[in-house]
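Handout, section B. The chain below has 377 residues.
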Amino acid sequence: MIDTPLAYLLSVAFIAAVFGIAERVKKTRFVFDYLPAVVLIYAASMLAAQLGLWEKSDAVTTVYKTAKSNLLPAMLFLMLLTVDLRRFVKLGPKLLTAYASATLSIMAAFVAVFTLFGFTEKEAGMFAALAGSWMGGTANMLAVGSAFGVDDTAMGYALAVDAVCYSLWVAFLLALVPFAGRFARFSGAEETTQSQAELGCACTIGPRRYWLLLAAAFAVALFSQWVAARLPGLGATTWSVLIATILGIAGSYTPLSRVNGSTELAGTMLLLLVALIGSRADFSDFSEVPRYVAAGFAILALHAALLLLAARLFRLDLFSIGVASLANIGGVASAPILASAYHRSLAGIAVLMAVMGYLVGTFGGLTVGYILQWIAI
């Protein structure tokens, strides 16, 4: 049994590294089309915890809390450096309407299904975290979950629902691609055929400067926590997340946004965070998982119905609403794949929408969480 802080961190990092590397190996990559690395990392780390690999000593608990509280704002800051608000606005009215419709319909679906299923205030934070993921990504899930004090076991439930529902949603949207023409006749829209410029992010050009980015990220983490501890109202973790988000957006307008390596470094931090959370989970009761998964599918069904209504009202084509939906729910990993299924030149649109989720997901998830808490009281 591991009971020292350094050995604990090394073993958790090893689990994250194994699956993180495997995801990039061609021979094993197909596995991750169905089970994302974050899910496998969480499962492996959680299993190790159930088998008693780590002792929950005071020293291990302290290093866990320290690592988590510093990695979260640092990761958010790095991810938001790639957000390009100016290029996003240039997508045009139709695509922006589709994106807004997808995001708002997800928020409305979470509120409606939460009420319909009669979930409690205790579960509001978990569904807020899931909403953060379905409007952004796993990083937003962790940020929103931490802000609401969601325990590590409940985060595991959210990850499980995300993995199951997301995989089938991707398959469903890809299966709809051949019906784009029929859908256009239903909605009265013109199919999107124009070519858009790729994201063109300068952060993928030139040598990777990890040390510079690491120093900036942890400076932001320390600053955000220092300020958060002195602000009233929302709680230190929530303030820390919001401050790091604002600084990340501000950083996207500086030369720091053109430094190569921020995406990879943020991705590494994300995998390590998921492994850390899994190492503290306790899955002694799986009885609620089917109910949560059923709620997840109900949310997607209502989201789809609201998107159909938006398509009819605003004359949106299948490409626009499909990619907008997957940019929210699937993120950068899958939205470009769906866009490319329509036309290779359209992948840049999906990337822009998905990257915007890094910003929208946190604020959207927090908003949904506060509404759910109010409903549950």
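Note. Residues 84-259+285-376 form one domain. Compare this with the example in section A.
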